[in-house]
Write a structure and sequence with these properties.
69 residues; mainly alpha; 4 helices; globular
């Protein structure tokens, strides 16, 4: 999520549902069928904030919601 511009610590501390949303995101990642592609995408974009995750990301809507506040 950090690669998509999400401050995970701020989300956990600063949002009433932050912990629940992060848990949901982790569970979705765990059942992703594109884990190898995702690891490659994360490695290519390490240290940057690209904004949007790949289209196959199961968390893309959640990431958009968190970014929009």
């Amino acid at each position: 999520m950090e690669t998509s511009g999400i401050d995970i610590e701020a989300e956990l501390v600063g949002h009433a549902n932050g912990a629940s949303r992060m848990r949901t995101a982790m569970l979705r990642c765990g059942r992703c069928l594109n884990a190898d592609d995702c690891q490659g995408w994360l490695a290519e974009n390490a240290g940057s904030h690209v904004g949007s995750p790949p289209d196959y990301c199961l968390n893309k809507d959640l990431i958009r919601t968190v970014r929009e506040g």
